[in-house]
Amino acid sequence: MRSxxxxxxxxxxxxxxxxxxxxxxxxxxxxxILYWDVLRNHGNDFFQYLADGQPPVLYFPYEIVxxxxxxxxxxxxxxxxxxxxxxxxxxxxxxxxSFDHDRRPVVVIDPRSGNAPGIAGSKRASEIGIALExxxxxxxxxxFPEPVPGQTLEDVKNAEICFIExxxxxxxxxxxxxxxxxxxxGWAVALMSADxxxxxxxxxxxxxPISYWAGVRGRHVVRYKAGLTGGVWGVELASDLxxxxxDGANLASGHEALDPAExxxxxxxxxxxxxxxxxxxFRDFSRWWSSYYLMTAEEIRFMIQHLFIENxxxxxxxxxxxxxxxxxxxxxxxxxxxxxxxxxxxxxxxALNWILKVWGTxxxxxxQQQVIIYMVHENVGHIGLFVSDRVAKKEHTEIxxxxxxxxxxxxxxxxxxxxxxxxxxxxxxxxxxxxxxAFEDIENLDDGVEDELDFYPVAEISRINDLCxxxxxxxxxxSMVTPQSAAFMRQHHPQRFLRMVLADIxxxxxxxxxxxxxxxxxxxxxxxxxxxxxxxxxxMDLMASFMEAGTRMKDAAEExxxxxxxxxxxxxxxxESQLNLPSTVAEGKPHEAAWRSAEDVLWREKxxxxxxxxxLVRVLVAVAGADGVVYQEEIxxxxxxxxxxxxxGNLPDxxxxxxxxxxSRILELYPAAAMEALPILLxxxxxxxxxxxxxxxxxxxxxxxxxxxxxxxxxxxEILEV
Length: 722
Description:
Blueprint: H1 2-11, H2 13-51, E1 62-67, E2 77-82, E3 92-93, E4 106-109, H3 127-133, E5 138-143, H4 153-170, E6 178-182, H5 184-195, E7 203-206, H6 225-229, H7 233-241, E8 245-247, H8 248-258, H9 260-273, H10 275-289, E9 294-296, H11 297-309, H12 312-315, E10 318-319, E11 325-326, E12 335-340, H13 348-359, H14 362-367, E13 371-377, H15 384-387, H16 389-401, E14 412-420, E15 430-436, H17 439-443, H18 455-480, H19 483-491, H20 494-501, H21 510-521, H22 531-566, H23 569-572, H24 592-606, H25 612-624, E16 629-631, H26 632-644, H27 653-669, H28 671-676, H29 678-681, H30 685-699, H31 707-720
Parallel strand pairs: 1-3, 4-5, 4-6, 6-7, 7-12, 12-13, 13-14
Antiparallel strand pairs: 1-2, 2-5, 8-9, 10-11, 14-15, 15-16
Helix pairs in contact: 1-2, 2-10, 2-20, 2-21, 4-5, 7-11, 7-18, 9-10, 9-22, 24-27, 25-26, 25-27, 25-30, 25-31, 26-30, 30-31
């Protein structure tokens, strides 16, 4: 029958379009029913998730090591050890005494941004999955749906310190744990590590805001929200209406409002257009997105007021009841910062600019013996930094694969560059190099910092508004709110209510369920080249473009309004705004010159101190950094050369790291004198020949001897008379 109609269509020019129209109508009506059936199933998933107690959305099984709810100052956090995904079994609650692992342990922390924990390990291609594949013992710090009443960020910080100390105790011979902090968990990791500098090893901060005021005019408007709403009082009000708890569903709604075209047009249409293949992916992601967790009023207020509005973490002014101020300059171990230019929640400026403010100069970074590595993705969004398969298989794989190597980079600032591997020389899909960078490279990502002066009056006005709210309105609201009214409001939040009405609890969804069952057995999708199907897609793209244009106009209006209010000199009079943006770097201290002079004397004395180990590391570090680029292979070869030589094979890793940092500083301060002193350190001709031979081997490790490397090798051979 259909072949007969096709022959008729060939003879009648309009008949083909008519058949396309029929095919499209059948397909579109079927997709409509299937679309609503997917939403119905998601509503059922939502109820089932609540019935299960809102567990983490982890793909991997785990066992609890420490439960923060049992601490002297209880918190709704727990430390768990991830088990290999090939092992089957449910969660085990038992005390663990020790683990037999030689690799450095990795601790992953997800943000408390309104949703359930587990996004970093929600599927095979994830941070946790990659770390397990690479043989690391992997731990995860999760949190439970409801916080302990009265818990504070200080309590959480202290609990996380206990967790990391427990991981270090379980792996005493594996090096300090490396910590991966995602989004808001990143600043928590930085804060914790600055409070206890010797606690952890390399830190990886993915999409983590620390410079909250930074951004590019015309692009990053999220930073203006607090100023346009009057500050922290709105969060206080929401917490009071929640009987002392802040509902994470509010944060989910706020995130969706940042990009309405994606949230309300492109994403739903992608499900509708590909309902036959996208159903499971949509339900998996939505199970996490609709997992709304709570925070205490104390936690959300501290976070919004002191971090987002007052920017105290970058300024080194965060302090808790114990009185100690947290200064990020106290960070000791390597830091890897991963951000994306397509991230409108945490743009690269907010993830990187704090480096400039905290250390002031690149020389100060090197003087503090710090290694800082950054990488900026071209276009992935904020959530994509953590859930994208492509990002996981490329960026996260290489970041985690470099955790044990970044400790051996010379102190300084680097950009991590990932390029496709050459199958002729390696089976690895990608090749990693670390390119030396200057502070100007980070400054060039921004359009200046003058606009940050507008945020000083925002902080002052926020404090004034908060004082007024606490004095005149808060007592009345708290007296009227009950736990029952707070629960009623949470239950009827649009994020929850819309999912409830689409579940089977609503009798109106029964026809959808029955119709979808029939349609799946008689599915008749229209072909991709159907002209009406293509027109539908173009129409949705056009609608999304109109929504994006409207969003850009709204953002421009908000930015203009913010500038009109807070750039006003009369408004600035209410603040303690400085003429220049502050830096946490101390300048002009009376003892600074004397201290630096003593430091120079110390390093100058070390030029001729030592023996074979110092000379070997000095030469290898010089060759590796001769061209300003260090390949991952060079670090691997450098370590193999040191560990396989009879005179340095017994050096512990900590001593090798110390030698790399010391010799790097000597080469930085006195490059010529450091080379000229090699004969003093290497008196034996056999040792000199051995060092030169290993230097040549290192230069060839990246398959190409750079002209700068060749020049340096010739200079070393001349000095050592080899």
